[in-house]
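Section 3.1 - Work completed
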Amino acid sequence: MMKSRKYFILRILAVSFLLFAANAIMAGSAYDPLAVKAQFTPEIIDLTVNDAERKRDIPIRVYLPVEKTPSPVVLFSHGLGGSREGNAYLGNHWAARGYVAVFIQHHGSDTSVWQDKPNGQRLEAMRQAASLENFMLRVKDVPAVLDQLERWNKTEGDVLAGRLDLTRIGMSGHSFGAVTTQAVSGQSTRWGRMLFTDSRIKAAVAFSPGAPRQGTNPVQAFGKVKIPWMLMTGTKDVAIIGDADLKSRLAVFPALPPGGKYELVLYRAEHSAFSDRALPGDSEPRNPNHHRAVLALSTAFWDAYLRDDAAAKAWLDGDGPRSVLEKDDRWQMK
């Protein structure tokens, strides 16, 4: 009797230990989109894509992960007056997570618009650069860059040879870059045609998106988007140039069809919250958690839809986002 009782107690202890160990292992391996290798520094390469047909050079900055095997590719399009050097916090983190991050610079709506202008002329120069002409240049820059990446990936001895998994391409951008992103990843014109959509793009993230203000209602513009989209804006996300107000930014998500669609609205986040630094006219102090949330949610989105990572999708569709958001931030999906 004593022996069997001792055996029963030992069995209970053994089972308890196994359950404890299993829980510890699960906790240790829980999905975390912010986890990166300690002291990781991406290899950064500046290159130029020559679009011979348009006689146009397109500077790019490439953030390379440590992996030498083919990695998913994420493109980024800067906002008005920006450059390939901006939003480095995104490039560094995405590369640390195993993505080749390619930041495109669009001549005509980049830093060259304002750098050599006197302070009093810069705002007007920026307004003039927010044009249909520059929009057309931007949306044609994206396929030109993708075409060149395909060539470099196949060129023996090239710095990018064999490094790119071009079956897994994500597109992203901020402000004018968000407009660019929308156009090349599924937005329709007033005639219902997706004139600029590139089928090579499998998922997209738009920072400070915007619905068209004239000629096309949001459902016409976004009702046929087929791929996963993530939208990020803020409750004070208003730019001093252009007519994209908060109402316009918030009109995009309701117009999207269901399936892999997400929206984050950061509380008291201004237009610059998605950039590296504050902008003239900002009134809110920088909130460090905004970048933390942006990195976590964008990374989980790429992992879920470019890597088909089930744990990332479970985190994204479950309670994961609330773990990185503050109480007044708004998050929704469909």
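Second construct:
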Amino acid sequence: MSTLLDEALTRLDLAAGFAQAHPEVLARLRRPRRVLEVSIPVRMDDGVLRVFEGYRCQYDDVRGPFKGGVRFHPEVGADEVRSLAFWMTMKCAIAGLPFGGAKGGVRVDPRGLSRSELERLSRAYVRAISPIIGPNTDVPAPDVATNAQVMAWMSDEYSVLCGHRSPAAFTGKPVPLGGSLGREDATGRGGFYLLMELARSRGWLPDRTRIAIQGFGNAGQHFASLAADAGFRVVAVSDSRGGVCCAEGLDVEQVRRTKRSEGSVAAHPGDRISNAELLELETEVLVPAALEGQITRANAASVRARLVIELANGPTTPEADRILDGAGVDVVPDILANAGGVIVSYFEWVQNLSGSSWTIEEVHGRLRDRLVAELAGVTDVASEHGVSLRTAAYVRALRRLNEAYQPMGVGGSRPAS
């Protein structure tokens, strides 16, 4: 039975021939450097001790320190963090960042924890993985169900353990604690900048461009707000409890208020829609912004969007890729589409190490310029080789990883004596 990582590696195999990567580089990229599994004992508010499963996968660091988020979710497991860490390796390479890929998480439903229990879990996780993280080793960040507050607790715990303040050890922190302006909406904003560039190149007018967004967490909400403010028609959104749609376009800010007050967009007035139905709406743009494995062989033929922008990690399976490609549906792959978060995390890390602070205009401008340039590079590779945008993105990332490994010695090469 294939694992999630096996599926992820099929994209590497598709890109390998076009990238002309050395076989030894490919061999290195097929397995992570390290996977740490830890037990995390936490005293709950009622006095009962619970022991949670925690993970940190460090996949590859040839281009720089490991980098990747920490998620709190009931489905977190070793195979998942391996796959996510592999994607982070490729994402940092496609974004041109001096980072490798990592990922971590705790198997837990954070909705069942009090604030004090969440803090104790966050700090205990850092104590468990502290021997393998640090500003020059592995720099965690927020991911599913973690946020700036969780990063504040984690950063503080790490500082206690190492005996001094070390803000560059974590990114995605609150701004007063060394976080970067622009980090909160970076993933959604990055996807929005790509939407703007792609709509411009296709001659799409915003008010005639319909968008459906599956997943209304941090990335989905910010993407929706930015798109609506720019005049695009956000016609459907959903979260884990269901969704709402309106052919004329939703009032995104009203939907966000409903999400905050009621806990779900499904409570918003309008036509009800399921997550599965949202994926099959007739729109110009579909944005999977939830979890992996949403567009599969079973439903890919029913996708009627003309463009998919993957704000989630791994929302489309390899089998679905082939179906979408055959139907002429362009997919902006996750390793590019949601790279805004790690790009601004890099900006935060640089600011922390240098003791500087950038304006919001500087952050937004640098993010936009980097993503637009990488999209152009990926599009050029796709045209050159007649491949999908996903394969082209992997080709571009793999070429950079191959270039980094060459001076390290591959093929049994040794320095001249």
